[in-house]
């Protein structure tokens, strides 16, 4: 070969997977949190926006969404804008991160909504009665508890984000699965290639699970039911 | 201090929870609101600081109209303390931080001032040693005393109590009532929804009896317990004073 071992290939794929997953997860967490909050506000407009967002992103296969952003969107835009988009360096990477991120944001939003509505109604009333504004009530009272409650399912969503990033090979992103495939094509060693990729995925997800468990312990509240 | 004039409130298009309720609470007065469940007493008290909107009538608090869209509600609410049936301490904050939060975020007090004020009030309700604990580590009675201290930390001009002892074990009721009695004796303006007729007898100036969304009786304590005018109040009293 002369240009590095197959392990180097796989590891560079792993780095791409990690980068795309982390970026997608940040997008999912930030936009999902905003949408999740919107869905719990009394305002009709707010919950309507939240409803549309969630239904749009969760009711279409991820594969179709990535094709939409990568192949269809540039054609729908004015010619110059479309051309600019197509010629962006690293386009598959950014499309994958944003596409997977938005897809996952719908799931984060629904879970955060469930977390917020699972809190006693009196919590919001108590902080309102103290004179806190709606923003302050969410920031200091509702969200700290809601996020603690949904931490275990959020871990699953983070893992899903990592696994879903493999779909990005369909738009030409050579991440871990992509590298395993090219390794298989070079060497005809199907089992070895995908066993190695599997082990790397398992390791990566094990790291995430462990880190999240530490986080859960770190934010646990003494005496509170989920604190054990 | 609190004026409630011809207040009407509906849940949905048909169910009327409050029917033409009119009463008032003067400065330094302690008014107990009682009545069977579903009579609207909790709803009425939640209307006073606009936790519940009203559809008709007026509520005026210290000269400020509560149901005026131009009223700065957070500011108004920060001047009235409220204590809930289920305490509603913030579970992720230590006791002292529960007392500090609104002082700092709403009143803009400095951290050390808010802490000092909080510790003073915790001492007053006998819980100074628990300042660093979390709410779930305290008993119900202790949590409710913290909730009272949290409301007092805002230097309220009046206090609203929504069934403060209904969720407590019997042996913890008195520790909460003791704090409330002290408050009343210091001249705090109080509106208290409760079934504790002993408390009413001890410190109330007036008793309001509600039934099916109406204020059926609004009388001086002695008149209410001595000779309630309405049948419904008589029946209610005879039932809850039986034992």
From TrEMBL, chain A:
InterPro entries in alphabetical order: AA_ABC_transptr_permease_3TM, ArtM/GltK/GlnP/TcyL/YhdX-like, MetI-like, MetI-like_sf
Q: Kindly list the residue ranges recorded as spanning the membrane.
A: 20-41, 48-71, 91-110, 130-151, 193-215
Give its localization. Answer: Cell inner membrane; Cell membrane
Annotated GO molecular function terms are: transmembrane transporter activity
Keyword Cell membrane annotated: yes
What PROSITE patterns has UniProt attached to this entry?
ABC_TM1
Give the GO terms filed under biological process for this record: amino acid transport
The answer to whether the entry has keyword Transport is yes
* Keywords for this protein: Cell membrane, Membrane, Transmembrane, Transmembrane helix, Transport
Example GO CC term: the record gives:
ATP-binding cassette (ABC) transporter complex
Q: What is its main location?
A: membrane
> What's the protein's topology in the membrane?
Multi-pass membrane protein
Q: Which NCBIfam families match?
A: HEQRo_perm_3TM (TIGR01726)
What family does this belong to?
Belongs to the binding-protein-dependent transport system permease family. HisMQ subfamily.
Q: Tell me the protein's name.
A: L-glutamate ABC transporter membrane protein /L-aspartate ABC transporter membrane protein
Q: What is the lineage of its organism?
A: Bacteria, Pseudomonadati, Pseudomonadota, Alphaproteobacteria, Hyphomicrobiales
Automatic annotation (TrEMBL), chain B:
Domain (ABC transporter) spans 2-237
What is the superkingdom listed in this entry's lineage? Bacteria
The record's listing under Pfam families reads: ABC_tran
Q: Name one GO molecular function term.
A: ATP binding
- Listed SMART domains: AAA
How does this chain sit within the bilayer?
Peripheral membrane protein
Q: Which GO terms describe its cellular component?
A: plasma membrane
Q: What exactly does this protein do?
A: Involved in beta-(1-->2)glucan export. Transmembrane domains (TMD) form a pore in the inner membrane and the ATP-binding domain (NBD) is responsible for energy generation.
Name this protein carries in UniProt: L-glutamate ABC transporter ATP-binding protein /L-aspartate ABC transporter ATP-binding protein
Q: What is the lineage of its organism?
A: Bacteria, Pseudomonadati, Pseudomonadota, Alphaproteobacteria, Hyphomicrobiales
């Amino acid at each position: 070969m002369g240009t590095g071992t197959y392990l180097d290939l796989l590891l560079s794929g792993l780095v791409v997977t990690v980068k795309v997953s982390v970026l997608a997860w940040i997008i999912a967490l930030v936009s999902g949190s905003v949408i999740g909050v919107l869905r719990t506000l009394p305002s009709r407009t707010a919950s309507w926006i939240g409803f549309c967002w969630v239904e749009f992103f969760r009711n279409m296969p991820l594969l179709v969404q990535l094709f939409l952003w990568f192949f269809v969107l540039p054609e729908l835009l004015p010619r110059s804008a479309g051309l600019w988009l197509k010629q962006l360096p690293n386009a598959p990477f950014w499309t994958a991160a944003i596409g997977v991120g938005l897809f996952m944001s719908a799931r984060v939003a629904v879970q955060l909504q469930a977390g917020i509505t699972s809190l006693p109604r009196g919590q919001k009333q108590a902080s309102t009665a103290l004179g806190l504004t709606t923003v302050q009530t969410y920031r200091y009272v509702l969200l700290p508890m809601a996020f603690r409650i949904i931490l275990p399912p959020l871990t699953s969503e983070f893992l899903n984000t990592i696994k879903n990033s493999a779909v990005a090979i369909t738009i030409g992103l050579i991440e871990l699965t992509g590298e395993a495939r090219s390794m298989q094509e070079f060497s005809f060693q199907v089992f070895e290639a995908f066993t190695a990729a599997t082990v790397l995925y398992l390791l990566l997800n094990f790291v995430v699970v462990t880190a999240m468990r530490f986080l859960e312990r770190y934010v646990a509240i003494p005496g509170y039911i989920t604190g054990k | 201090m609190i004026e409630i004039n011809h207040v009407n409130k509906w849940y949905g298009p048909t169910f009327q929870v409050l029917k033409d309720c009119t009463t008032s609470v003067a400065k330094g007065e302690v008014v107990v609101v009682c009545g069977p469940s579903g009579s609207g007493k909790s709803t009425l008290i939640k209307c006073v600081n606009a936790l519940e909107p009203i559809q008709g009538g007026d509520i005026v608090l210290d000269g400020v109209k509560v149901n005026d869209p131009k009223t700065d509600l957070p500011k108004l609410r920060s001047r009235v303390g409220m204590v809930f049936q289920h305490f509603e301490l913030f579970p992720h904050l230590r006791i002292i931080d529960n007392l500090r939060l609104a002082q700092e975020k709403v009143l803009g007090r400095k951290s050390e001032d808010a802490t000092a004020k909080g510790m003073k009030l915790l001492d007053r309700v006998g819980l100074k040693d628990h300042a660093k604990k979390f709410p779930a580590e305290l008993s119900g009675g202790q949590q409710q005393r913290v909730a009272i201290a949290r409301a007092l930390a805002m230097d309220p001009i009046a206090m609203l109590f929504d069934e403060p002892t209904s969720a407590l074990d019997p042996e913890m009721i008195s520790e909460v009532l003791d704090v409330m009695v002290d408050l009343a004796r210091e001249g705090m303006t109080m509106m208290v929804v409760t079934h504790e007729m002993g408390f009413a007898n001890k410190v109330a100036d007036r008793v309001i009896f509600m039934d099916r969304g109406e204020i059926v009786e609004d009388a001086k304590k002695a008149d209410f317990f001595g000779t309630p005018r309405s049948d419904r109040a008589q029946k209610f009293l005879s039932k809850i004073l039986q034992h």
